[in-house]
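re: the backbone from monday

yeah here it is again, tokenized this time
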């Protein structure tokens, strides 16, 4: 089953959704009790169709099999945040992911980005900070944390995420935070 899963994920990563769907369905026929397979199928269906209605039964099955598995909630939340642009529904799903697994860093990161869109830098910094605390290698959360610190005018705190991004060879993200700092300091240019 792991081989099927790995092949399916590879197809998913390469945007070969029909192949991914076929592989995940074959794996599910062999062992229908693995929530990760249903979640992956839901993700492939969602990416192929762009329709949550088509993908939701697979996500629901993953949740039914393991209510403490946060990925299906997270994937639905990402859909609501990105495709539908409905922050209320996205927040609801990210919070469900956290309730399912309080240590699921990506859900806190998702909330962080939503709070950045709402221009609530303090709440964004709190969410990104929790994500980084849980998973310091989650570079998108490090990036968000740095931007949140700039948004709340705590530039000195942005140095830690900048350093973490540079260590991880993500100089592009570190530079973007530094650029945001410079853009937020027009008084430095005028004297």
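seq for it, each position gets an aa:
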């Amino acid at each position: 089953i792991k081989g099927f899963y790995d092949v399916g994920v590879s197809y998913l990563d390469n945007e070969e959704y029909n192949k991914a769907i076929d592989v995940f369905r074959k794996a599910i026929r062999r062992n229908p009790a693995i929530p990760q397979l249903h979640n992956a199928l839901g993700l492939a269906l969602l990416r192929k169709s762009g329709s949550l209605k088509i993908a939701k039964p697979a996500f629901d099955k993953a949740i039914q099999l393991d209510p403490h598995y946060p990925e299906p909630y997270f994937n639905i939340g990402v859909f609501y945040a990105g495709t539908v642009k409905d922050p209320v529904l996205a927040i609801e799903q990210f919070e469900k992911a956290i309730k399912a697994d309080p240590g699921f860093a990506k859900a806190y990161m998702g909330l962080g980005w939503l709070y950045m869109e709402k221009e609530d830098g303090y709440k964004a910094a709190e969410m990104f900070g929790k994500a980084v605390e849980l998973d310091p290698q989650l570079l998108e959360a490090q990036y968000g944390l740095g931007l949140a610190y700039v948004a709340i005018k705590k530039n000195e705190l942005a140095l830690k995420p900048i350093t973490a991004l540079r260590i991880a060879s993500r100089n592009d993200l570190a530079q973007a935070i530094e650029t945001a700092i410079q853009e937020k300091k027009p008084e430095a240019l005028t004297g």
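The two ends are 64 Å apart (CA to CA). Residues 6 and 90 are 28 Å apart (CA to CA).
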